[in-house]
Each structure stands twice: as structure tokens, then as C-alpha cells.
Amino acid sequence: MTIHRHLITGFSNPAVKAARSLREKKHRKREGRFLAEGLRLLTEAREAGIVPEALWLGQQRDPHPLVDALEAAVVAAGGTIYETTSDILSKISGKENPQTVLGVFADLPTSLDALDRGRSGIWLVAQSMRDPGNLGTMLRTCDAVGAGGLILVDQCVDPFSVEAVRASMGAVFTVPVAQADWGEFLRWLRAGPGQLVGTSLNTSFDYRGADYGTPCFLLIGNEAQGLPPAYEAECDLLVKIPMLGKADSLNAAVAAAVMAYEVLARQS
Amino acid sequence: MTIHRHLITGFSNPAVKAARSLREKKHRKREGRFLAEGLRLLTEAREAGIVPEALWLGQQRDPHPLVDALEAAVVAAGGTIYETTSDILSKISGKENPQTVLGVFADLPTSLDALDRGRSGIWLVAQSMRDPGNLGTMLRTCDAVGAGGLILVDQCVDPFSVEAVRASMGAVFTVPVAQADWGEFLRWLRAGPGQLVGTSLNTSFDYRGADYGTPCFLLIGNEAQGLPPAYEAECDLLVKIPMLGKADSLNAAVAAAVMAYEVLARQS
């Protein structure tokens, strides 16, 4: 077996430039790869059976059995291991105090057809989600409630951005993600069982008293605009989360979680 | 009445430097002031009776009755109005596309003694919260559930940072915030009625079946470490939010909201 192991100390090395470029969406799209940082995230990936194509390790790292396990998995998969300086890790990650473990992963599938709707009674559907932190947090919530996956409808932020991957705390590797436009999603949804539930200000029906079906698809609208009226009209059920204060909405990831835990409790 | 209105076109104007410096915590502490951006946030503030000491307006702004109302409120309070260029607003806010309305506010009170515990049956208590987005989101949730306020225990991120203020969507102006160390908080808490509830992995007691008191103080631990054991030991009740996936925790602001909405429903 050939082992691909390199020591890189030069900032202008093409591998450094290629890894660093993955912080930008256009390069991720072109390369079909994304970055994930930190031993915790990469271990989540490994335990989910997902191994980076390239593993970057800081020379100053402390020995750790989980790093050894990662190295072994990358070598076994025919991947490449780069040892490098803290300064170069900073350059790749764009952070002053970079993680000492960093992985370059091949894109994960994001096709609706790859989803198994029988996998869970709860799914999250985000429409035009703009904030990578919200998207990553929703993935983390999907993991926690045992949701089947996160479906991104219309133009959402990239689920494989460094910020979304970080906020997911590794859930990007364990929770299926799909991307589709609204029409594609509706056709897929209506081709099988499933209740589409929207949260809305245009109803007086409290989310606690609602009759949730299985599987239940929880539709969360864009952070600034909420759901378009035409999308609300397609919902099988509209519910309202009580808002007792001055504002008329919750953070999108918070609303998704409050709904998801309610559905989880009612389906249990 | 003297009206303080200035046109500023020079980047080196001391007022520009002073406003810009408020993006950094050390300058906020020294000046006792903070920044808030955008017509929506400043209108939330005005409706809560809080008017900026200085109002910055972009020369290219569109006319808007809410801007007129802000100007009138600042003038009536003896504050200063600066008209300036889009480039200078960019410099102050650090953003390429700055909001055309920006306010410099005097610090809001953050003393425990200023809190009225009879104001609400729900309070959020964050311990060593590190992320300004989480803090702002928790303020927004406080507003939504009608919580009495947010109590920041130990070294938390600054609630008046630009990021926290933005994530709060204006709730920083409507939700009381207090800062205290753990000992101070406990003394204050135990001097009156109140149940301290912690979320923990070290209990099998589901949050849905728990017996919440009034007022109920929901204690949320640091994003990475959770609550220290000694803090858990002080809780009157420990509950667990179900975690069905690979990870062992939710985003801190999400956990706070799931708990707060459960308590709200049970107290209703």
C-alpha cells in the first residue's frame, strides 16, 4: 500500500492554496470538496464512516489516540496526510488560533432522491435560510431529535461552508441534507406520505394543541421574511408559536427546535 | 432649544473615531456606551423609551417616517444628530453595506438589584456564555416567552457587543439584563422565591414531566463545558432534554428556548 504523507512548510505550496480556497463557496462548488476543522468534528465524521480525502495535522499537536485513529482511517482509504506548521494551518483556516487537525472532504450527497422518508417521523425543511450558523444549528437539532434530515428549499446558504459545518458540531456528517427548489420539493413530498407543517403569524392555532402526522415535515421560513404566502398555502397545517413580547418572531433555528421537540414529544 | 446637528465628511473626525471604537469591548467599557445598527433596532429602542445619545444618518438614506420619529426623539432628548457619507458609516460599522441608521447608546443597567423578580414566572440564566449570537438569541427568546430577563453569570460575552445587539433583534432594549458572579447570583436568588432549574446529562428526569415552580430560573451552561458539577448541585431541579442522536448537547440558545417554551406552556 502506498502511503501518501507529506511535510509542507511553504505557504505557496499548491496543496495549501487548494485547501485554503475551500473557504469560498465558488471554489467548493468547483472542487466538489469542503473543509472541516477540529478533532471532534473529524471524529464524528469518522464514526459515521466518512473519511477525509486529505488530513492536515499541525506539527505541534499533542499525541492523541483519536488523531491516530483518524490517520489510520485516512491511510486505509488511500487518502493523503499533510503535516504542516501552525502558521500554514492559520492560513488555511483563516483563524489566529487554528485547530491542529483539519480535513478536506468530498461533497456529501444532497439529492432528494437519496432521502428515505421512512427513516424518521420528523424532518426539517428550511426555506431560503441565509445564516450559516442557523443552518448548522438546525443540523445539530436534527441529530438531537432523531430527524430524518434537513431539506434546504430555494436559495439557502451552503451547508458545507466552514461556519455551517462548525455550528453543526459534526451533525453535517450524520444528518442527511438535501437541496431542492420549492417545486421539486413539493413533487417529492406529495409522492409519498407526509404532513407539511408551517409556523405562521397568520393563524391562531397554537403549536401545542396541534395534531401532528407521521412523518411530519416542519417548514421554517427565511430569517427576515418568514414563509411566502404561497408556501403557507401549501401547508397541511399552520401553527403559531406564542410570542408574548414586542417582537413577532423567534430566531429561525430556535423556532425549528421548539417545533421539533413538540412533535417529538407528541409522537412518542 | 439647541439642536445639535452636524455634517461629517472627514474620516479623521473624532466623532467617527469614537463611534467606531465602540466595536471593541475595551472601548465600550471605557466610554460606557454601545452601538446599535439599523432602523428596526433603533425603533425597538425608541418604543421602549430608550433614545441614542447620538444618531448617525446616511446622506443617501430614503425618507422614512420612522427615521423622522427617531430624529425627533433624539432632538427632544438633547442628543446629537450626525449626517454622514456611506463610506464613513461603513468605517464605523465595519461592514461593506452599512445600515443607514446607527445609534450610540449609553450603557443599560446590568445590576441584579435592578431586577423585579415578580415581573415574570420565567427567567433565563446563562453561565459563561461565550458566543454573542447565542446571547442575543437568548434575549430574543426572553422577549418571546415574556421572561423577566437574562442573568449573565460569571464571565459571559458582552451583551452590548454589536453581534449580540444584532442577534437580539432589539430585545436588548426590552429585556432586562443583569451580570453577576455565581456567588452574587445565588445570594440574590435565595433572598426570595424562585426555583433554579438546570439542564443536565446527569439525570434521567425528562424536561416534559417536571414540576416547574414560579418564578422558574432556567440555568444554561457554557457552550463547550455545560454546567460545572458544583453549579448543578445548587439546582433545585435537574432535567434532561432528550438527545436521540450522536451528539450529547444542543446549541445553548436552542436548549434555553426549548426549556423556556416548556415552562411557559406548563405555567399557562
TrEMBL record, chains A, B:
Belongs to the class IV-like SAM-binding methyltransferase superfamily. RNA methyltransferase TrmH family. Keywords: Methyltransferase, Transferase. One of its GO terms (biological process) is RNA processing. Pfam families: MRM3-like_sub_bind (PF22435), SpoU_methylase (PF00588). Residues 35-111 form the RNA 2-O ribose methyltransferase substrate binding domain. It comes from Blastomonas natatoria. GO terms for cellular component: cytoplasm. It comes from the Bacteria. GO terms for molecular function: RNA binding; RNA methyltransferase activity. This is TrmH family RNA methyltransferase.
